[in-house]
Design brief:
By secondary structure, this protein is an alpha+beta fold. It has three domains: 96 residues, no CATH class; 298 residues, no CATH class; 98 residues, no CATH class. It is 49% helix and 14% strand. It contains 21 helices and 23 strands. The strands form seven sheets. Strands 10-13-7-2-19-18 form a six-stranded antiparallel sheet, covered by helices on one side. The chain is elongated and about 130 Å long.
C-alpha cells in the first residue's frame, strides 16, 4: 500500500512551504490555532510517506490527536458527531491493521468498533456526570473564539442594521416558571451609551462606577437562565431591569451586567429581573452627560426642537416627537442611505429612512435639546419561542436600540421610538431575507405554508437538541451537577464520597458488562458442540484425554481399546453426536437427548498421577502403532 516514493528534494520544500504558510497566517507558530494548523500540515505530509504498516499506525494516532485539538474551537453537537464518526473510522482502520489476514470485511471491523464504543459508554457517562466538577478547568486553556459577533459598547448609525442581517443565535433564555414574558416586555438590556458627537455613541467609563441603589420595583423578580453564545465582550444580557445577578458578575449604576473576562465560549448563567421596575438614580455627573448636546448638531435640528418644546410639558414634548415620527413619511429599513457629517439633520428632514439606531439616536438628541436627560440603551428585543425546548431563542437579527429619558420623580423611563414607526418590530421578528436597499422592513407572519411550517418545526427541534447538548455536555458545570444529584437524592454527598461513588459505580458497571459479554459469548456457542465439550471434560477426568487432532470416531475406537469399561457408555453419545453434527437438518429432540446422555455420563474419576501415566502410555502406544 505504498505511494510512489518521493525524494527528499521534494519533501523538504513541501515541509518548508507548510511552515511558511502557518507563519504567514499567524506570525509566530505558537498558540492553539498556529499549533493545530502546523499539526494538520505535517499530518498531510505524512500521508505522502506511507511505506509500511508503522506509517499508517502513526497516521491513526495523529488523527486521534487532531480530533482532540478540534474541541479547542468548536464543541457543538454536529461537530462532535462528526468527530465521533472519524474516531470510529480510525478505530476500524486500526483493527484492520492488526488482523493477520484481511479475510474479514471492513464492515465487520466497523461493527466491532461500534460495539467497543457502546461497551465503554456506560462507564463514560457515570464518570462524566458523577466525577466532581470544579469551578474552573483543571488546565487553564485560553480558548480562542473565531467568528465572534455581537453588540459593542459604541454605536454608529448602521451598525445594528448590519448586525440584524445575521440569523446567528445570540443567546437562549429558559427556565421561566410561568412561561416567557410577552413580546412587548422582552427588552434584553446591554451596553448603555451616553457620549456622542452627533453620529457616534459610546458608553464611556461612568457606566461601571458604583452600584445601583435606586431600583423601584414591586412583586418578585422573574428568575430564568441564559445560555450566551461566544461574543468576545465582557457584558451579560438580562431582561430590563436585572436585580438578581450571577456570582462573579457586577451590576453597573446604569444596570448593565458586567463579567470580568471576555465571553469566548458558551456561557450559562442564572439571573433575575423586575419587568416593571424603574431606576430612580441620577447623579450630577450622569445628568450632565445625559444632557450634553454635540456642537455639530445643525441649527435646523435645534430650531425644530425649540418649536416642538415651546409651551409643552416634558411628557407632552415626548409625545409630540413620537407623533412626528408616526405622522411623517419615515421608513423603517435595514439598508438606509448613507449619512454625512450632520447625520441627525439628514435623517430627520431628508432621507427619513433608518433602522432602530437612527430613531433612537435622533430621539435622544431631540430630548436633550428639549432639556430632558436621555441616553441610548442597546441590546436585543423579542425572541422566538421554541415549544419543543420551552425556551426563547434570541438571534443577532433581534439586536435593537431604544432610549431612556429622565422624568424627575418617575425616574428613567424606556421609550422606543421605533415602535412609533414600525410597531410590528416589537411583536414580530423581522424578515431580513427580503430587505432591499431602502426598502421597508417586512416581518415574518405566523400563517406560513405547509412547507414553511415543517421547516420551522424542524428548526425548533434541532435548536432544542442543541440547547440540551450545551446544557448537559458542553456547559455541565458544578451547579448543574449539584442540581442533578439533588434530583437523584444524592446532594448530601461531599467531594471524597462523590469520587468514591463515581469510581465504584464505574467499576461495577464494567464488571456487569464483562459478565454479560461472557454470558452472551457462551450462549452463542453451538449447543451440540457445547454438549460434546462437556462430554470430553468428563472423559478427561476419567483418564481419557481427547487429542486436538482426534475426531469422534477415532476417539471411540481408542476408548474401546484402552478403557473398554467405558465403551458401552460412550458409544451412544459419540454416535448421536456424529449424526447430529453431520446431519443436514438435525432434530431438536435428538439434541435434547444428547444433553440427557451427557448428563447421565458420570465415569469414575482417576487420580492425576494415574491419569498422566495412562495418557503417556496411550500416547506412546498410539505412536508406536
Amino acid at each position: 500500500f505504498a505511494w510512489p516514493r518521493l525524494g527528499r528534494w521534494l519533501m523538504l520544500p513541501l515541509l518548508a512551504l507548510g511552515v511558511w504558510n502557518v507563519w504567514r497566517l499567524y506570525g509566530v507558530p505558537i498558540g492553539q490555532q498556529p499549533g493545530v494548523a502546523l499539526l494538520v500540515s505535517m499530518t498531510g505530509l505524512k500521508l505522502l510517506e506511507i511505506r509500511r504498516r508503522r506509517d499508517i499506525l502513526v497516521l491513526v494516532y495523529l488523527g486521534w490527536f487532531a480530533i482532540a485539538t478540534q474541541f479547542f474551537f468548536e464543541s457543538g453537537l454536529l461537530m462532535s458527531a462528526y468527530l465521533l464518526l472519524v474516531a470510529l473510522l480510525l478505530a476500524t482502520l486500526l483493527m484492520q491493521l492488526n488482523r493477520r489476514h484481511f479475510d474479514r470485511s471492513v464492515f465487520d471491523s466497523l461493527r466491532r468498533s461500534l460495539l467497543m464504543a457502546a461497551q465503554g459508554l456506560p462507564a463514560m457517562l457515570l464518570l462524566f456526570y458523577l466525577f466532581p466538577r470544579f469551578d474552573s478547568p483543571l488546565w487553564n486553556l485560553h480558548i480562542e473564539g473565531a467568528g465572534l459577533s455581537g453588540l459593542d459598547d459604541n454605536l454608529t448609525m448602521g451598525d445594528i442594521s448590519n448586525l440584524s442581517l445575521s440569523s446567528e443565535a445570540a443567546f437562549r433564555a429558559s427556565g421561566f416558571a410561568d412561561g416567557p414574558p410577552p413580546p412587548a416586555q422582552r427588552y434584553w438590556r446591554g451596553p448603555v451609551l451616553w457620549d456622542t458627537d452627533g453620529r457616534h455613541w459610546q458608553a464611556g467609563e461612568l457606566s461601571t462606577a458604583g452600584l445601583p441603589d435606586g431600583l423601584r420595583a414591586t412583586g418578585k423578580p422573574l428568575d430564568y437562565e441564559i445560555m450566551l453564545e461566544p461574543s468576545g465582550r465582557r457584558w451579560l444580557y438580562a431582561l430590563d431591569l436585572p436585580a438578581r445577578i450571577p456570582p462573579g458578575s457586577r451590576l453597573g449604576r446604569d444596570f448593565v451586567l458586567h463579567w470580568p473576562t471576555p465571553i469566548r465560549k458558551r456561557f450559562r448563567y442564572e439571573v433575575g429581573s423586575y419587568i416593571d421596575a424603574t431606576n430612580v438614580t441620577l447623579s450630577a455627573i450622569e445628568r450632565q452627560r445625559a444632557s450634553a448636546v454635540p456642537a455639530d448638531i445643525s441649527q435646523r435640528v435645534r430650531d425644530f426642537a425649540t418649536r416642538q418644546r415651546e409651551g409643552r410639558t416634558a411628557i407632552a414634548y415626548v409625545q409630540r416627537i413620537l407623533d412626528h415620527y408616526r405622522q411623517q413619511p419615515f421608513v423603517y429599513t435595514l439598508k438606509p442611505p448613507r449619512l454625512g457629517r450632520h447625520a441627525v439633520d439628514e435623517f430627520l428632514f431628508e432621507t427619513r429612512k433608518g433602522f432602530c439606531e437612527h430613531y433612537a439616536s435622533s430621539f435622544v438628541i431631540l430630548m436633550r435639546l428639549g432639556g430632558i436627560p436621555a441616553r441610548i440603551v442597546t441590546g436585543y428585543q423579542g425572541g422566538e419561542y421554541n415549544p419543543h425546548g420551552d425556551f426563547l431563542l434570541i438571534r443577532q437579527s433581534d439586536a435593537h436600540a431604544w432610549a431612556e429619558i429622565w422624568l424627575g420623580d418617575s425616574g428613567w423611563m424606556r421609550v422606543d421610538p421605533t415602535a412609533a414607526v414600525a410597531p410590528e418590530r416589537i411583536e414580530r421578528p423581522l424578515d431580513n431575507d427580503i430587505a432591499g436597499d431602502g426598502a421597508p422592513v417586512r416581518f415574518r407572519l405566523d400563517g406560513d405554508s405547509l412547507l414553511g411550517g415543517l421547516l420551522r418545526e424542524a428548526r425548533w427541534l434541532g435548536d432544542s437538541v442543541q440547547l440540551g447538548w450545551s446544557r448537559w455536555v458542553v456547559n455541565f458545570d458544578r451547579t448543574r451537577q449539584r442540581n442533578l444529584l439533588g434530583a437523584l437524592g444524592l446532594d448530601w454527598l461531599k467531594l471524597p464520597q462523590l469520587i468514591v461513588l463515581a469510581v465504584v459505580s464505574s467499576l461495577l458497571m464494567i464488571g456487569l458488562l464483562a459478565w454479560m459479554l461472557q454470558k452472551g459469548r457462551r450462549r452463542r456457542v453451538d449447543p451440540i458442540a457445547r454438549q460434546y465439550a462437556r462430554f470430553n471434560r468428563r472423559l478427561a477426568r476419567a483418564g481419557v484425554q481427547r487429542r486436538p487432532w482426534e475426531g469422534p470416531f477415532d476417539l471411540q475406537k481408542r476408548i474401546e481399546k484402552e478403557r473398554p469399561t467405558l465403551a458401552a457408555a460412550t458409544r451412544p453419545i459419540i454416535q448421536l453426536y456424529i449424526r447430529l453434527r453431520y446431519a443436514r437438518e438435525p432434530r431438536d429432540d435428538d439434541a435434547r437427548r444428547l444433553g440427557a446422555l451427557v448428563r447421565r455420563f458420570r465415569p469414575q474419576r482417576v487420580n492425576p498421577d494415574a491419569r498422566r501415566r495412562s495418557t503417556a502410555s496411550s500416547s506412546s502406544g498410539y505412536h508406536s502403532h
